[in-house]
């Protein structure tokens, strides 16, 4: 970060640490799921809810949090989010049964929703152009590495201590970031943006009803009123939510999607992050329940992706800033599709080095080429005043993608995550990645020096 000013370095460090805990906690739990299920019971449904309870509140409230960040100030919102996230993490670690665990996970997601939009908005509020592209590249490299290294850290804690310690990893980075926030002095914030609290409630309840139906239908069937009732209610509430979003003052300003790169970039995000979530869940669980690897070994399986992300992601952000993002956002997902397809070589006679490692290397290369250009393109398309909500929309899209694909897990794998189910998940993952690449090629364009929103696109001359 030597090319940044002292203020910019501090902002990037704060943004990274704030997002680090939410991204880490989204994936560190994956390899702990079998241990949680063994201790607390509940089978695959409990495993799905441990993941999706977090994603429901994170996805549903991240839009609201983006508006709150723009209205009340990024530093204030981030401080509240960090304290709440730390408290919820302790509650998860102490949970005595599945219900308490799931409720605490939902609280974690709600707190996490306050962190990601405010952290990226901090970057876009003090940096634009190529400097912003480099900053987002660094942010992306570290936070995505947190997602990738999460399973390894979780595996070590599960094998050496207990799954409960997995959720206490956050305490140290939260404490450090609260100290750094005291040193961060930004210009005074003017509260000029209205927060649509009603839309936030509609979104949260709507997503909750839909996900409940998707997860529990495998156990009760679609004919049960306990299933179709919440499902129908969820659809109605989401329709009411969208009906309210008809102005720039709304929680989700639909006018943002009139910006080409923002709209197409978010559609690509939907496919790519659905594939990433499905792949991460299936790898973490199957390698333990199928070949019988330890939690640590299952976590180590994805380490090559982490290494490649750290080495290449910030460079990819800079390259995309100079050459334009379209090529990277197309080739990257197509490489990841090929990597997912390589998992079809996994057989009953398991061999990590020939059946899984090649996939991890190709996936890591594709992911490193994709994530920073994708994030920079989407955020650079929107002016700084709305950077909080723009960041929130993109993060909400990625979380909803993961939320829905995990909720559909039983359908995707045919009810059981055995070898056939693993192969089915690999096919679906490859198709989702490929769709993300095709969408980027069709829709993404190199932005002019000054976009219609008044934003300078990252990396464009001007």
TrEMBL record:
InterPro entries: MFS (IPR011701), MFS_dom (IPR020846), MFS_trans_sf (IPR036259). It comes from the Bacteria. It is found in: Cell membrane. The keyword Heme does not apply. It is a multi-pass membrane protein. The chain crosses the membrane at residues 12-36, 48-65, 77-96, 102-123, 135-157, 163-181, 193-215, 227-243, 264-287, 293-314, 326-346, 352-375, 396-413, 425-444. SUPFAM superfamilies: MFS general substrate transporter. Pfam families: MFS_1 (PF07690). Keywords: Membrane, Transmembrane, Transmembrane helix. Residues 11-448 form the Major facilitator superfamily (MFS) profile domain. PANTHER family: EXPORT PROTEIN, MAJOR FACILITATOR SUPERFAMILY MULTIDRUG TRANSPORTER MFSC. This is MFS transporter. It comes from Microbacterium soli.
């Amino acid at each position: 970060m030597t090319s940044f000013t002292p203020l910019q370095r501090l902002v990037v460090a704060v943004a990274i640490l704030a997002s680090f805990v939410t991204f880490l906690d989204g994936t560190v739990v994956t390899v702990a799921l079998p241990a949680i299920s063994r201790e607390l019971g509940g089978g695959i449904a409990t495993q799905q809810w441990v993941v999706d309870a977090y994603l429901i509140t994170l996805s549903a409230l991240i839009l609201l949090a983006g508006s709150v960040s723009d209205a009340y100030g990024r530093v204030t919102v981030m401080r509240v989010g960090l304290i709440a996230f730390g408290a919820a993490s302790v509650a998860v670690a102490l949970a005595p049964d599945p219900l308490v665990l799931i409720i605490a996970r939902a609280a974690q997601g709600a707190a996490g929703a306050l962190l990601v939009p405010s952290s990226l908005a901090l970057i876009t509020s003090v940096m634009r152009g190529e400097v912003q592209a480099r900053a987002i590249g660094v942010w992306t490299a570290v936070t995505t590495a947190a997602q990738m290294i999460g399973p390894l850290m979780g595996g070590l804690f599960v094998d050496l201590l207990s799954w409960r310690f997995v959720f206490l990893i956050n305490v140290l980075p939260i404490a450090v970031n609260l100290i750094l926030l005291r040193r961060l002095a930004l210009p005074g914030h003017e509260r000029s943006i209205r927060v649509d609290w009603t839309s936030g409630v509609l979104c949260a309840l709507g997503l909750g009803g839909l996900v409940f139906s998707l997860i529990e239908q495998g156990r009760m069937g679609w004919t049960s009123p306990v299933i179709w009732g919440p499902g129908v209610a969820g659809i109605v509430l989401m329709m009411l939510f969208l009906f309210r979003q008809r102005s720039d003052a709304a929680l989700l300003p639909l006018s943002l999607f009139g910006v080409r790169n923002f709209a197409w970039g978010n559609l690509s995000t939907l496919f790519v992050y659905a594939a990433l979530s499905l792949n991460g869940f299936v790898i973490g669980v199957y390698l333990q329940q199928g070949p019988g690897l330890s939690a640590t070994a299952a976590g180590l399986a994805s380490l090559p992706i982490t290494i490649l992300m750290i080495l290449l992601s910030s460079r990819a952000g800079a390259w995309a800033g100079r050459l334009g993002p379209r090529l990277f956002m197309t080739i990257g997902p197509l490489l990841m599709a090929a990597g997912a397809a390589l998992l079809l070589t996994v057989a009953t006679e398991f061999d990590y080095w020939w059946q899984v490692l090649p996939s991890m290397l190709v996936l890591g290369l594709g992911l490193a080429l994709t994530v920073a250009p994708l994030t920079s393109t989407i955020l650079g398309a929107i002016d700084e005043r709305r950077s909080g909500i723009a960041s929130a929309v993109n993060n909400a899209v990625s979380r909803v993608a993961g939320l829905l694909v995990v909720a559909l897990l039983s359908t995707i794998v045919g009810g059981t995550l055995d070898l056939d189910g693993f192969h089915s998940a690999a096919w679906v993952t490859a198709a989702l990645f490929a769709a993300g690449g095709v969408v980027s090629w069709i829709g993404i364009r190199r932005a002019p020096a000054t976009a219609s929103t008044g934003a300078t696109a990252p990396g464009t001359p001007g």
